[in-house]
Amino acid sequence: xxxxxxxxxxxxxxxxxxxxxxxxxxxxxxxxxxxxxxxxxxxxxxxxxxxx
Length: 52
Known about the structure:
Largest sheet: 2 strands, antiparallel
Number of strands: 2
Structural class: mainly alpha
Strand order of the largest sheet: 1-2
Helix content: 55-70%
Number of domains: 1
């Protein structure tokens, strides 16, 4: 954080913060949708595991 004239505080954006923000933005929709689609994933795994 740097102080500019007039008491304004400025922040620098680092490459790490951009990477972390991208990861959050990418995973958030997946985390929100997964509970609604979980039954289909479990059903598909069960069908794939049945031998016969």
